[in-house]
């Protein structure tokens, strides 16, 4: 039976008390150290090992070793522990940042303990910065800089301090003894390096690897502390690699498996912490796995155990669809195929080094990249592409990446076609000067070959090509060897691009719409990658344009708000409160990327933080400039759709709608000026709207949030004939006459309507009847009546003497002097059992409109209103006997902004949002 207890490192006292380890062979016992747990079973011929073994013996004394050996029972010595492989193993890897502080190491221990897998192997890097500190020691020593001694003390102090915070009692003592001994060995070795003024690679690797040895021990003891038996592994005892040139190593799986088997038979633990980064050669010389070595260690070990999964813990939520520093919209990918991860890492994406993928790929072991500081993020799973295309690989294009500082070399001429060996000559010239060819493209006409190389290598390539092709150039067989400087590569990566028609069409369409010129294109037969070469200055814009096309929903809308007053401001607050719900439930992503008032303006590339739009408009604002807001919107290539919402009452702003629609910017407004302005301009605007796919919505211009425009359009579009539209169209005037009773004065009620936000910015627009007349015109024009505002006779309620007031405030101040006149009119109506109501009429049959103050009997529906109610009656062919009536509050901030918001959602739904 394999007991977990026997796997834990035991001091002699504990061993003697009956908790025992399995016995190693006689040769191995001689050099085994119970304190440091580094298995000294190798022949003592390796000078690096001698130091350690002798150190161990000197440190702990042979007596203790003998005691440990004596405690091993015969029964346990007989136990054969073959290496279990497969699903029961889960492998985790924690990098230096994860192991950065004692608290983080404790968090790592907690993560390990929360994994319910039957068996776990945890690969760790050195504590953050320690590897650099260790390299620095070697560097100092071989430079004969004796400050290596104080630097070594710092290494000791750092680990001692961490261990003191993390461990206690026996675990701490054990770690301290080991650290102490290692540091004295290192001191001796560094001294030797100092004297020689030189360190061999294996000496250096031996020194540097201590960071991992210490972090592995600390974590293993921290896990032990919680009562879960855990042992630790010096992977130099197991992982055998051979150098494969160009600063790389290849794992020797057969030999490693043999050694792992042997190691495990001695320490058959269910939880093992192993050192990342370090390994050994077949000749037992310490070495490292080079850059990103710990990930590689995890992948190799995962493969040796045929693990269920290898989890690489880091400090990001997973692999992004593009560099998040360049594309703020970048998203975390939930899955990636091995090949995609491979492609992306080539482009410098923060994925795994390609060689890390190889060991697990051969056994189909998934690698999961997770954020240790955000455990709620599920991370990115890198696995074999599911056979079923509909399985969880999200999209055919997985990510976009760029490489800057490139130059294109274009070799061109009629003499190239059909001449074997031209390409070979070109690329051997590039090779001869050591240039790295990053991408190649040749048109099938064979008249030109172009390729991209790093900018810093292009001069040498150009010189080499001119030399090689001197004769061909002189004879005119080649017309030019041309260099195009300042280029970048933009690559789209995705496995399913191969089986999805139209991907490249979408890619190039997005580039075209962003007005980006493509210099060269390459797509290999594998179709994992489509690469385009563009001007470096266009690259960031191109990246954002293509990313948004593939990753943002079609119903992402960039919104510009003009006039953050009562309605505009209320709309911004409603957007703030509802945006997340819309995104979550309806995939509608509304981003306000610009707000302008009359004096200040705030712009954002990705979306204003609506929680603080008011502050931003004060503190982080520029002088208001409508033209630059429009430019900001139309030149933004991140968002597929753009809309301007005019919340002013400004005629000048309204005069721009035509241009905006022409630019492809949708327009939404509660401002009545465009639809009630000069007829010819109105007709031009509506004609353009109908001829284009750009939308113009203005529901709130009549009846605020009440569905007046949409009801009318619905009747007309379905073939009903409108005969007459009649009603109370002014929320302000409705409020005034609903409340002008008893002892209240007319001017008080007007002031109340103003305070309640029912009036126009200047209340004279309401009292003069102009606002109602505008609404009558808007409805009349919907019914195809060609009327101008001046065609509507209007009864103004503004006393003649106040029409010339220079401001709304002056008007409000002077209004009380006319209260008596109003009292008289009211009394007259009241004595006839009637009420005053201000009504508008569109008489479609007679092709005219009117606006009047009328008296109605108390039982008339118009007399029944309250608050700011509007009531609008449509008499039509279908609704002839009983008109279709829409009634409800027809003014006020919330209902009006709500009406504008509805238009925004209608736009999103026209653009494809779910209903
Ligand atoms: N208040 C209501 O109940 C209803 C209002 N409306 C319409 O909504 C629009 C806005 O009304 P309110 O918000 O009540 O008025 P408001 O006066 O509170 O807001 C208008 C805002 O637009 C700004 N503005 C004016 N000209 C501008 C320009 N050229 N560029 C940038 N900003 C400019 C002003 O500084 C102000 O902040 C008006 O067209 C009104 O007819 C429509 C239905 C109901
Ligand atoms: N001032 C207007 C607001 C809506 O258009 C009104 O009172 O109706
Ligand atoms: Na309306």
Q: What does it look like?
A:
The chain has 34 helices and 30 strands. It has an eight-stranded mixed sheet, sandwiched between helices. A seven-stranded mixed sheet has the order 22-21-20-19-23-24-25, sandwiched between helices. A six-stranded antiparallel sheet has the order 14-15-13-16-18-17. It is α/β, with parallel strands linked by helices and 915 residues long. 46% of the residues are buried. The chain binds 1,4-dihydronicotinamide adenine dinucleotide, ligand LTNE7NMQ and sodium ion. 1,4-dihydronicotinamide adenine dinucleotide (NAI) is lined by residues 562-568, 596-598, 626, 647-650, 652-653, 670-672, 700, 704, 731, 757-758, 760-761, 891-892, 896.
Q: Poorly predicted ranges (pLDDT <50, ≥5 residues)?
A: 1-80, 389-394
Output the structural class.
alpha/beta
Percent range for helical residues? 40-55%
Strand composition percent:
15-25%
Radius of gyration: 39 Å
Q: What ligands can be seen in this structure? A: 1,4-dihydronicotinamide adenine dinucleotide, ligand LTNE7NMQ, sodium ion
**Average of the residue pLDDT scores:** 87
Count the helices. How many?
Answer: 34
As laid out across the biggest beta sheet, the strand order is 3-6-2-1-9-11-12-10
Distance between the termini: 63 Å
Task: List the defining traits of the structure above.
915 residues; alpha/beta; 8-stranded mixed beta sheet; elongated; binds 1,4-dihydronicotinamide adenine dinucleotide; binds the ligand N[C@@H](CC=O)C(=O)O; binds sodium ion; chloroplast; homoserine dehydrogenase activity; NADP
């Amino acid at each position: 039976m394999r007991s977990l207890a026997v796997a834990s490192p035991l001091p002699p006292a504990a061993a003697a008390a009956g908790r025992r380890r399995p016995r190693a062979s006689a040769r191995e016992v001689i050099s085994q150290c119970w304190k440091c747990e580094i298995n000294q079973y190798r022949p003592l011929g390796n000078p690096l090992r001698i130091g350690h073994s002798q150190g161990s013996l000197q440190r702990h004394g042979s007596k203790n070793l003998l005691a440990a050996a004596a405690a091993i029972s015969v029964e346990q010595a007989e136990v054969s522990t073959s290496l279990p492989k497969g699903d029961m193993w889960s492998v985790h890897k924690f990098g230096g940042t994860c192991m950065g502080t004692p608290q983080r190491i404790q968090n790592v221990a907690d993560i390990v303990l929360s994994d319910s897998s039957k068996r776990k192997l945890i690969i760790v890097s050195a504590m953050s910065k320690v590897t650099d500190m260790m390299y620095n020691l070697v560097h100092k020593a071989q430079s004969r800089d004796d400050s290596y001694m104080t630097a070594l003390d710092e290494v000791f102090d750092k680990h001692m301090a961490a261990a003191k915070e993390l461990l206690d009692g026996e675990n701490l003592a054990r770690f301290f003894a080991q650290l102490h001994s290692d540091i004295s060995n290192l001191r001796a070795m560094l001294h030797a390096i100092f004297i020689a003024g030189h360190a061999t690679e294996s000496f250096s690797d031996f020194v540097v690897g201590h960071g991992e040895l210490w972090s592995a021990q600390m974590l293993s003891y921290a896990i032990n502390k919680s009562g879960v038996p855990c042992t630790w592994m010096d992977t130099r005892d197991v992982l055998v690699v051979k150098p494969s040139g160009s600063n790389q190593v290849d794992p020797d799986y057969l030999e490693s498996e043999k050694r792992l088997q042997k190691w495990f038979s001695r320490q058959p633990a269910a939880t093992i912490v192993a050192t990342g980064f370090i390994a050994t050669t077949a000749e037992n010389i310490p070495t490292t796995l080079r850059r990103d070595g710990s990930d590689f260690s995890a992948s190799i070990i995962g493969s040796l155990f045929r693990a269920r999964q290898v989890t690489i813990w880091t400090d990001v939520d997973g692999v992004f669809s593009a560099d998040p520093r360049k594309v703020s919209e970048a998203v975390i990918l939930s899955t990636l195929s091995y090949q995609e991860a491979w492609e992306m890492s080539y482009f410098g994406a923060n994925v795994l080094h390609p060689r890390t993928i190889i060991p697990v790929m051969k056994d189909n072991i998934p690698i999961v990249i997770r954020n240790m500081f955000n455990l709620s993020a599920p991370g990115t799973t890198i696995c074999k592409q599911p056979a079923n295309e509909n399985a969880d690989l999200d999209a055919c294009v997985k990510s976009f990446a760029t490489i800057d500082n490139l130059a294109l070399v274009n070799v061109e001429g009629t003499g190239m076609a059909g001449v074997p060996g031209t390409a070979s000559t070109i690329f051997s010239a590039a090779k001869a000067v050591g240039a790295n060819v990053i991408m190649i493209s040749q048109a099938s006409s064979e008249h030109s070959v172009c390729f991209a190389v790093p900018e810093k290598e292009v001069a040498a390539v150009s010189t080499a090509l001119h030399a090689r092709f001197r004769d061909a150039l002189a004879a005119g067989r080649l017309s030019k060897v041309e260099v195009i400087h300042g280029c970048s590569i933009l690559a789209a990566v995705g496995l399913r691009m191969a089986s999805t028609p139209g991907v490249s069409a979408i890619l190039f369409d997005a580039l075209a719409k962003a007005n980006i010129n493509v210099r060269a294109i390459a797509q290999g037969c594998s179709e994992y990658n489509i690469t385009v070469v563009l001007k470096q200055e266009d690259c960031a814009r191109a990246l954002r344009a293509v990313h948004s096309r593939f990753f943002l929903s079609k119903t992402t809308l960039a919104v510009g708000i003009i006039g953050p007053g009562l309605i505009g401001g209320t709309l911004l607050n409603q957007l703030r409160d509802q945006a997340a719900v819309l995104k979550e439930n309806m995939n509608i992503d509304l981003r306000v990327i610009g707000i302008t008032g009359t004096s200040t303006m705030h712009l954002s590339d990705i979306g204003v933080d609506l929680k603080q739009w008011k502050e931003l408009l004060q503190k982080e604002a520029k002088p208001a400039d409508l033209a630059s807001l429009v430019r900001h919107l139309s030149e933004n290539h991140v968002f597929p759709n753009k809309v301007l919402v005019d919340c002013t009452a400004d005629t000048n702003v309204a005069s721009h709608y035509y241009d905006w629609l022409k630019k492809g910017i949708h327009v939404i407004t509660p401002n009545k000026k465009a639809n009630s302005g000069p007829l010819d301009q109105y007709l031009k605007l509506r004609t353009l709207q109908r001829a284009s796919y750009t939308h113009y919505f203005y529901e709130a211009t009549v009846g605020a949030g009440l569905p007046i425009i949409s009801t009318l359009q619905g009747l007309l579009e379905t073939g009903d004939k409108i005969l007459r539209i009649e009603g109370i169209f002014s929320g302000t005037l409705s409020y005034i006459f609903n409340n002008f009773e008893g002892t209240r004065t007319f001017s008080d009620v007007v002031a109340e309507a103003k305070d309640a936000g029912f009036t126009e910015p200047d209340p004279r627009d309401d009292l003069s009847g102009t606002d109602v007349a505008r609404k009558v015109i808007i409805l009349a024009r919907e019914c195809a009546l060609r009327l101008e505002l001046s065609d509507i006779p209007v009864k103004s309620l503004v006393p003649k003497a106040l029409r010339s007031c220079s401001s709304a405030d002056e008007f409000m101040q002077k209004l009380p002097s006319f209260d008596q006149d109003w009292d008289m009119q009211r009394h007259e109506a009241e004595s006839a059992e009637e009420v005053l109501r201000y009504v508008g009429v569109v008489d479609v049959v007679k092709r005219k409109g009117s606006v009047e103050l009328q008296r109605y009997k108390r039982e008339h529906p118009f007399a029944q209103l309250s608050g700011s109610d509007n009531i609008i009656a449509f008499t039509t062919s279908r609704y002839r006997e009983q008109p279709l009536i829409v009634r409800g509050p027809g003014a006020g901030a919330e209902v009006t902004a709500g009406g504008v918001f509805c238009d925004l959602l209608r736009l999103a739904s026209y653009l494809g949002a779910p209903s």
